[in-house]
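Figure 3 (text version): structure tokens given as input.
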């Protein structure tokens, strides 16, 4: 019976999307183009170098080298192996869903148990600094100082999630404490060397596989971004979003948030960029209320990113439920931290900002380091995307000829 209900639900959802696309073709096309632009201008060029580099570092044993060195830190704090430090750092630097991809990759390499992988993926999917500072703070709020507050709330909240998730699956954790084993550079280097020797592919083949695997993942991510952009727009056009907003509005009244933030909040639950932009433009709301809403949206990841993560994890035995629970927990942590840190990291910084501030903070709001970097990425992003797809096509063509 449960399986039949699921089949009916999925069929009705597909029919709803199909009929909505026929009913609102112009708006669906506009939303689709918006999602496509975001993918090929920002997501693809910003994530591709990280994905390829990560594949090379894993294959050459560098990740295992790092894992042995950081075992005494990661194991006691987060109850994950030292290789988790690499995933954590790469996840923060490149943004979601890098943490999920790298966690799945390490699980396939048997460097993580299933419980350890579920712990690790719960706190290694974060928004990258470029998006927080360049897109949200400067692009949407036109205030680079706000990026300090949003970044601190986001990354500290993510760390707290990792500490909380260390208690997940305690009954499955081995009793032997590997963090107390003697760690030496020689031992780490031998592990690196052994990993490289176990890689049978020549460098050219290995590098080509890394490029193709990364591009394949990014194509999947692009599909999710476009579809959720369209789906979010269709929900608004058919009147479902306002109905949901009415229910969330009651909750917002209880926590003293204005009704004007309900629609941006719902949009952010589906797609982060649109939700953050609508929140920044919301009327009749003070800045702190907008920051609380954006902090939760960034931490929740949005259903679009969550669908990407679920697709990546589907190739492994890592369960999605712990990750989803962690997203809610991260949202609550980030929203709470934004309230606690609003005065010291934003109000006080604006009050005492002087020539002692960093250079990029003293520039005008439209000439900051992050805004320039974001604009450059948008300008060269499409060229990088087209060039990368051309290279991938060339590699596939050469391999088809050889076969």
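Below: residues designed for each position.
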């Amino acid at each position: 019976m449960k399986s039949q209900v699921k089949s009916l639900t999925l069929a009705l959802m597909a029919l709803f999307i199909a009929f909505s696309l026929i009913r609102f073709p112009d708006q669906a096309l506009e939303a689709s183009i918006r999602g496509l632009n975001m993918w090929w201008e920002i997501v693809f060029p910003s994530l591709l170098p990280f994905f390829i580099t990560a594949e090379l570092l894993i294959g050459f044993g560098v990740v295992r080298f790092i894992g042995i060195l950081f075992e005494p830190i990661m194991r006691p704090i987060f109850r994950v192996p030292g290789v988790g430090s690499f995933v954590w750092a790469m996840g923060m630097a490149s943004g979601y869903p890098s943490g999920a991809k790298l966690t799945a990759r390490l699980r396939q390499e048997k460097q993580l148990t299933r419980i350890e992988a579920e712990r690790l993926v719960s706190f290694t999917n974060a928004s990258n600094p470029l998006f927080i500072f360049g897109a949200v703070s400067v692009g949407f709020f036109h205030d680079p100082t706000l990026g300090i507050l949003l970044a601190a709330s986001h990354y500290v909240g993510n760390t707290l999630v990792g500490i909380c998730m260390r208690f997940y699956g305690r009954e499955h954790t081995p009793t032997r404490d590997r963090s107390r084993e003697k760690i030496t550079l020689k031992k780490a280097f031998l592990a690196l060397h052994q990993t490289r020797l176990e890689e049978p592919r020549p460098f050219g083949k290995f590098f080509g596989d890394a490029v193709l695997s990364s591009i394949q993942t990014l194509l999947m991510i692009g599909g999710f971004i476009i579809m959720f952009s369209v789906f979010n727009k269709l929900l608004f056009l058919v009147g479902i979003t306002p109905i949901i907003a009415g229910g969330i509005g009651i909750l917002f009244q209880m926590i003293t948030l204005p009704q004007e933030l309900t629609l941006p909040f719902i949009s952010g639950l589906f797609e982060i960029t649109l939700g953050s932009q609508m929140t920044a433009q919301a009327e009749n709301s003070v800045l702190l209320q907008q920051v609380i809403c954006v902090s939760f949206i960034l931490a929740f990841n949005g259903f679009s990113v969550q669908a990407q993560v679920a697709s990546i994890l589907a190739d492994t035995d890592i369960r999605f439920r712990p990750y989803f629970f962690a997203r809610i927990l991260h949202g609550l942590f980030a929203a709470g931290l934004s309230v606690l840190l609003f005065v010291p990291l934003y109000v006080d910084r604006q009050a005492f900002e002087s020539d002692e501030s960093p250079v990029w903070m003293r520039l005008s709001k439209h000439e900051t380091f992050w805004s320039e970097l974001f604009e450059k990425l948008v300008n060269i992003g499409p060229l990088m995307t087209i060039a990368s797809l051309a290279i991938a096509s060339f590699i596939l063509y050469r391999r088809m000829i050889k076969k």
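The mean pLDDT is 84.
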